[in-house]
Amino acid sequence: MSDQAAPVTYASAGVDTHAGDKAVELMKDAVRATHGPQVLGGVGGFAGLYDASALLRYRKPLLATSTDGVGTKVAIAQAMDIHHTIGYDLVGMVIDDIVVVGAKPLFMTDYIACGKVVPERIADIVRGIAGACEVAGAALVGGETAEHPGLLEPDEYDVAGAATGVVEADALLGPERVRAGDVLIALGASGLHSNGYSLVRRVISLAGWELDRDVPEFGRTLGAELLEPTRVYAADCLALAADPGAGVHAFTHVTGGGLAANLARVLPEGLVATVDRSSWVVPAVFDVVRRLGSVPWTDLQNTLNLGVGMVAVVDANGVDAALTRCRELGLPAWELGTIAAAEDLDADGSAEVISGTKGVHGGGVRLVNDYRTS
């Protein structure tokens, strides 16, 4: 073994535990703001503790859980050095998946892997996660920041999270409740949300567009549009589901795979949803991506949400009540289509039908009419 000029320490290997401690100090007030009396132990413990006594009031409580990340949208945040919004994307991707079954989110944990802990940056990320958890009505009970020098560059990071919620068994939403005659209510997206950024980034890279480019169609810079946070639907969806007049039977979260693929996951066999693509105007960001990259509509609709972030499946008699409730919540919503028995539909082959997605062999979704872009 050769002599070394200086001893090797954890810090010289690229890991700064003091920076991690500073990050916790900077973020802890935001995390505590999500805590109600159910959260025990505060910030910094080995495990987050949550008092589940309230579950004793349930007749048959079902726990729902989900985990996800943000994907390559983090590259936009890193390039712009803006980190306080990416947490909304994480919470939207994780918590809104459990709300689909009607589950009330209870708590969430997060994980951040980075090349170098910059306390202010890590605190910004976690403040965003905490802020979105407040919007969703969930407690942020724990997390972990891991420094990975040599694996990630100093300014690189990735985020992931997991959440747990609860729903009464007889209030569970999903395919078992969906019936022929039900109506689809679209809940508008805030933008690209957090899916398809590999496609979007490839398009803008090939076009040579910079993030500080002013785009007239957006009324702001390209970077600002791409970094628009994911809309967090949790509280609004639960309010809609609790409205007896709305008659909500199911929700679907429009994430990777697009509208039709995700809608097909919540339909039972034998039923087909007809989605009217002319029922809304596709927001400018999607059309700009399409035109800039000559992206086929089929590829676009199978990758991006195209302006529909969530869909509620409601009883035909509940449409007016559902739309009224959405207006009261400040949530853009419109009638998107209907559900019918497969044998009752015109099978002339003129409509595109999508089924059997994500390993779920249920109903199908047919897309009719053309998209509107203005």
UniProtKB/TrEMBL annotation:
One of its GO terms (cellular component) is cytosol. The keyword Ligase applies. It is an enzyme of class 6 (ligase). Pathway: Purine metabolism; IMP biosynthesis via de novo pathway; 5-amino-1-(5-phospho-D-ribosyl)imidazole from N(2)-formyl-N(1)-(5-phospho-D-ribosyl)glycinamide: step 2/2. Residues 53-167 form the PurM-like N-terminal domain. It catalyses: 2-formamido-N(1)-(5-O-phospho-beta-D-ribosyl)acetamidine + ATP = 5-amino-1-(5-phospho-beta-D-ribosyl)imidazole + ADP + phosphate + H(+). Keywords: ATP-binding, Cytoplasm, Ligase, Nucleotide-binding, Purine biosynthesis. Its main location: cytoplasm. InterPro entries: PurM-like_C_dom, PurM-like_C_sf, PurM-like_N, PurM-like_N_sf, PurM_cligase. It comes from the Bacteria. Pfam families: AIRS (PF00586), AIRS_C (PF02769). It is found in: Cytoplasm. Residues 179-345 form the PurM-like C-terminal domain. GO terms for molecular function: ATP binding; phosphoribosylamine-glycine ligase activity; phosphoribosylformylglycinamidine cyclo-ligase activity. Its EC number is 6.3.3.1. This is Phosphoribosylformylglycinamidine cyclo-ligase.
